[in-house]
From TrEMBL:
Keywords: Hydrolase, Protease, Serine protease. Signal peptide: none annotated. Residues 195-255 form the PDZ domain. Belongs to the peptidase S1C family. This is S1-C subfamily serine protease. GO terms for molecular function: peptidase activity. One of its GO terms (biological process) is proteolysis. Transmembrane segments: none annotated.
C-alpha cells in the first residue's frame, strides 16, 4: 500500500492560491504618506502603481518593501478620473508585475494582494459583475466594469488582483458606496504610460465657464458665464451669455455630463455646438484643446 499522502481538491486549491500569493508578493508593496496608507505594485523597474484616491494629497511617500525596509518615493503623476497613481521609487527593484490580458467573467474566483508593514495582506472573493467599458463619475475611461464581492481592508486600496490562475488582472480600488472595483490591466497600462511620459493625463478643454440654465419647460442648456482669452471657445467665436443647447446634434442634459465627455480622446476633436444668442439660433465649430496644467 502506498504511503503517499492524498490531498483533497480543496487542499490542492488552497495550496495553489497560497503559492500564487507567495509568487506575486515580492512585487507588492505598502505605500504610506503623512496622511494615508495604501498598497501598490511594481509596474516597471523603479515605478510603482497605486490608488490615487487611496493616497490623495501628498507628493512625497515612503514604500515599505517586503521584509519591512522603508525607502523614499515620489509621486510622478496622478489621474483622479481612473484612480491611477504612479510613483517613482529607485528602491523598488522587484520584477515588474506581468498582467494576464484575458478578461474576467462574473463568478470567477479572485484574490486581492496588498501589503501592510512589509507583509502580504490578502482577501478572497468573486467577480460579482463583469461589464463593458465605462466612464467614471470623474470622466475617466475604464476598459471594463468589474465589481468584486470581497472585503478590501484598510491599507489595501491599490492592491493587485489575482485571477484563479494566480496571474495579475488589475488593481482593486473603492468605488461609489465603497463597492470594490477592479481597474483593468489595459487601463493601468494606458494611463501609467501617459503619467510616466507627461506626469498627467490630457483632458479636453473648452475655455468656457458654464452654468446650467433652463431653456424651456422640458430642456436645459449651458450658459457661458466666461470665455478664456485665446481659448478654444474664443477661437470658435463663442460669447459670454451664449447658451449651448446641443452638442453634435444631441441636447445638453447637464453641464457635468458635458464636461465628463472631455476625456483624453476628446483633445483635437471638433464639436458642432448649437447656441442660442439673444434668442437667435447660432451654429459654431469648436476644436477641443488640452486643459492647461494647474
Amino acid at each position: 500500500m502506498s504511503n503517499t499522502p492524498s490531498f483533497s481538491p480543496l487542499e490542492q486549491w488552497s495550496a495553489a492560491m497560497a503559492d500564487a500569493v507567495s509568487a506575486a508578493a515580492p512585487g507588492v508593496l505598502a505605500v504610506q504618506t503623512r496622511h494615508a496608507r495604501a498598497s501598490g505594485f511594481v509596474w516597471r523597474p523603479g515605478w510603482i502603481v497605486s490608488s490615487e484616491e487611496g493616497l490623495p494629497e501628498d507628493e512625497e511617500a515612503e514604500v515599505v518593501l517586503p521584509g519591512g525596509t522603508t525607502v523614499a518615493a515620489k509621486v510622478a503623476g496622478r489621474d483622479p478620473t481612473t484612480d491611477v497613481l504612479l510613483l517613482r521609487c529607485e528602491g523598488a527593484t522587484a520584477s515588474p508585475v506581468v498582467f494576464d490580458a484575458a478578461p474576467l467573467r462574473a463568478g470567477e474566483v479572485v484574490i486581492t494582494l496588498g501589503a501592510r508593514e512589509g507583509l502580504p495582506l490578502v482577501a478572497g472573493g468573486l467577480v460579482s459583475l463583469a461589464g463593458p467599458a465605462w466612464r467614471s463619475l470623474r470622466g475617466g475611461e475604464i476598459d471594463a466594469r468589474i465589481e468584486l464581492d470581497l472585503r478590501l481592508r484598510s491599507g489595501a486600496e491599490g492592491a493587485l488582483v489575482l485571477n484563479a490562475k494566480g496571474q495579475a488582472a488589475g488593481m482593486a480600488v473603492f468605488g461609489p458606496r465603497r463597492r470594490v472595483l477592479l481597474i483593468p490591466a489595459a487601463t493601468i497600462e494606458r494611463v501609467a504610460t501617459q503619467l510616466m511620459a507627461h506626469g498627467r493625463m490630457p483632458r479636453g478643454y473648452l475655455g468656457l465657464s458654464l452654468q446650467p440654465v433652463r431653456v424651456d419647460a422640458c430642456s436645459v442648456g449651458a450658459m457661458v458665464m466666461g470665455v478664456a482669452a485665446q481659448g478654444p471657445g474664443a477661437a470658435a467665436g463663442i460669447h459670454q451669455g451664449d447658451i449651448i443647447v446641443a452638442m453634435n446634434g444631441q441636447p445638453i442634459r447637464s453641464v457635468p455630463l458635458l464636461l465628463r465627455a472631455l476625456g483624453p480622446a476628446s483633445v483635437g476633436t471638433v464639436l458642432a455646438l448649437s447656441l442660442r444668442r439673444a434668442g437667435e439660433a447660432v451654429e459654431v465649430q469648436l476644436t477641443v484643446g488640452e486643459r492647461p496644467a494647474d
